[in-house]
What we know:
Blueprint: E1 7-9, E2 12-14, E3 18-20, E4 42-48, E5 61-64, E6 67-70, H1 78-90, E7 97-101, H2 106-117, E8 122-128, H3 139-142, H4 145-158, E9 163-166, H5 175-183, E10 188-191, E11 195-198, E12 200-201, E13 206-207, E14 213-217, H6 222-235, E15 240-243, H7 249-258, E16 262-265, H8 268-271, H9 275-289, H10 301-313, E17 317-323, E18 329-334, H11 337-340, H12 343-355, E19 364-368, H13 371-383, E20 386-393, E21 396-398, E22 410-418, H14 422-433, E23 437-446, E24 457-462, E25 467-468, H15 474-477, E26 492-493, H16 494-500
Parallel strand pairs: 3-4, 3-16, 4-7, 7-8, 8-9, 9-10, 10-15, 15-16, 19-20, 19-22, 22-23, 23-24
Antiparallel strand pairs: 1-2, 5-6, 6-14, 11-14, 12-13, 17-18, 17-26, 18-25, 20-21
The site of zinc ion has 7 residues, from helix 15.
Amino acid sequence: xxxxxxxxxxxxxxxxxxxxxxxxxGYGEEYAPFFDLNRLGAIVVxxxxxxxxAGNPPPxxxxxxxxxxxxxxxxxxxxxxxxxxxxxxxRQFETPIIVNVNGETIDEYIKLSEELSQVEGVxxxxxxxxxxxxxxxxxxxxxxxDMVYLVTSMVRRATRLPLIIKLSPNVTDIKPIAQxxxxxxxxxxSLINTVLGLAIDHxxxxxxxxxxxxxxxxxxxxxxxLRMVWEVSxxxxxxxxxxxxxxxxxxxxxxxxxxxxxxxxGTGNFIKPELAxxxxxxxxxxxxxxxxxxxxxxxxxxxxxITYQTFxxxxxxxxxxxxxxxxxxxxxYFQAAMVLQDPSLASNLCAKLAKKFKGEQxxxxxxxxxxxxxxxxxxxxxxxxxxxxxxxxSGKMQLRRGFRINPQERVLVVEDVITTGGSAKEVVxxxxxxxxxxxxxxxxxxxxxxxxxxxxxxxxxxxxIETYEPDSCPLCQKDLPLVKPGSRTAISTLAERLKxx
Length: 501
Ligand code: ZN
């Protein structure tokens, strides 16, 4: 079985989604004796500053029950030595090299980013706005949404390399900070950096770290990291790189499910140098065992599960014995109106759908009446553009009420549910006739069962619903009462059944 493990962070392609986190993998050469570095998805090297830094006074590391507290303070060789002494070694590998960039001022971030952009073999920059162990820059910048916006937009202007912003977990709400980084032009987000902590020697009453406070990492922080990766990937449309306490393949699979497009192994490298390779192999084995051909089926799975559960709870997904408009019978039925009748839920679901088309420079959203009207409005609201709907008059899909599609407009077609794609296809034709361009079709639910639709479809959720000819319907054979959806008799919902169990 061929399994696709390739993921992309902007135009940077990784052969697998597993990288090693900055500050836990030196400059690569320290780990080269343990395995072939070409096997990694990417290498994120130790944080670089403009000048050589000695770091914080010792002691710098304290072991904790499920992790470690460190206050190294960005000890590093500085930009010049990194370019002359470290890059020649790293350039030998085909694995992308991502350089972690640190400054005490915005100017330093800009200068470093400019200089590193000229260095052969540097594939991307990770801007560290989250180091908790330095007096200036780092976390001081990363906890302030406006500062994150400012630094990101200034660095964006200084480099054409893919730009990843590393965020701090030491904030009340990470979502607006992530959002500001995206608005400022970030191509991806790394999270989380370490959690600010303290260790005291009870016998002397003194701090156990030279810097007094330090950053907690390792398995202890994994639940925090997972929660933040989930929150952020629901909020932004750029890829998230998840890290924090990965010590086995299952941890990485959890981060991918939470919405991370890639993961980084950090503190675990200190315990087991070849851990990243074990994680890669473990992910591959899992996908093979589950017969999953593409890693993207795993990415964001958690969010889809939550959406599915919402549909069941709101009785939008019904179970019973249904007569469909096609004349076929089915054991399940999806009634989008049951979720759309709740305005805040409709808004929330459509925001997630809109996110899938952010960055596509769409001018107009169009939905076929009736199901598409609410979805079109909510998606358009999120994209900040106008929404219209089409109507079928004497069997023909058309625009009324003065609605227009202008030539050359980039148009998104949306639906509540796609079954055969019939209405969507008619709207796609309508858009083409107007001389405009169809960018894609978006739908809350895709229950087309992988049928060739003739357009690119992105949906919040894919639901498999089997349908039967009346002659060979197993539900008819069981004498289950047949129900026409919309009527309220003889319907047992999956939610009711779940409650009974
Ligand atoms: Zn039947």
